[in-house]
Amino acid sequence: MVDFSIEAVRGKFPALSLTDKGRRRIYLDNPAGTQVPQAVADAVSRCLLTTNANLGGHFETTIAAQQVVDEAHQAMADFLGAASPQEIIIGANMTTLTYHMSRTLGRTMKPGDEIILTRMDHEGNVSPWLQLAEDLGLVVHWLPFDEKTWQIEEAMLASLLSGKTRLVALNYASNLTGSINRVKSLTQLAKQAGALVYVDAVQFAPHGLIDVQELGCDFLICSAYKFFGPHMGILWGRRDVIDGLKAYKCRCSSNGLPERFELGTPQIELMAGLTAAVAYFAGLGTSAGEYGSRRRRIAKAFEVSIAYENPLAQRLIDGLSDIFGLTVHGITDPKRLGDRVPTVSFTVDGIVPETIVRQMNAENIFLWSGHNYAWEIVHQLGIPAEQGVVRIGIAHYNTASEIDETLESVHRVIAMLRQQRP
Predict the structure, then answer these.
(1) Which Gene3D superfamilies match (predicted)?
(2) Of 46, 220, 241, 346, which is most buried, counting CB atoms within 10 Å of its CB?
(3) Where is 403: in which H helix or E strand?
(4) Sign of the CA dihedral 16, 19, 22, 23?
């Protein structure tokens, strides 16, 4: 029996009890950003009110601020399974960090070198590399996803690798289809060819345990605001790789790790919130009966949250599959729930996604339409980019009743829109 109390979980998130003119809110916009526990907001506030100083001094608040920074790096090392907090680089967001690291890695590349990008990635793990290729004269190879399995297949990657491949940018889980890629086996192929591997785990991080050492990649990036934390990005880099890189930075700033890659004054108060977000996961693991290390408690948290989320995802998929003319773009087989995160996107024949979403938003059901920066996915699938899809994203604070109410709304709104068509 899974020890997961949805009432206890929801009680930690103040936003879940908010209403608008007496109407409840249903948060299914989670792939774009989750709500935060009270403890995260409290940590940010406490830092601003009691430890608000820049780093490097010898007085109480600056010493305390440095401790906040150090704790955040250690917390994320535990969250990602890193060997050291020195491998954790914290910055503004995933896209900014990826642009920064792409330019840094560009110093190691030359015209004619090859990079591989996927048709499955968020644009934040595509445009930085495309523009680097344009700047340096690199050759770009495109890796499509299989439209039957909804995953990147090893054989296709192997066909693109060569002795000139310098980097493979991979997607851990899609923010549109929800599909999870076999990152470890894909990474092994890339490493055999001598390439670096850069993994976007933004959509996977809220829904599964990440072990960067087990994966074998060189870089992995995620966003705290997707896993119940503040707005910031976290990049893990393998120590023996990042230690040899020359960063773009101020001449007089530190050459240490990770400082050389963390430009300017850190977002100290948000780092306090980041540590609190990791503590939330650890606390969830403790509630489920794990009392070991923080890493073990985090692992337990994901064990119980996955067991809770997956039936909700299947409930949603099954309910959508009843609608004539509706296509779910992603894995729908109940036997393959482990190959996806609970992000479900769909289109309906003859109906623009935004018209569905606007109606549901008016009912205080929060979800998105559009390409959601999954630019390559919509083009591979032949979906008009200006329209995109309807995207519903479940987090482990959502409930079965919310899914049922959402499904009722989808059915009703689609029926209404069809009646309005000439």
Answers:
(1) Aspartate Aminotransferase, domain 1, Type I PLP-dependent aspartate aminotransferase-like (Major domain)
(2) 220
(3) helix 400-420
(4) negative
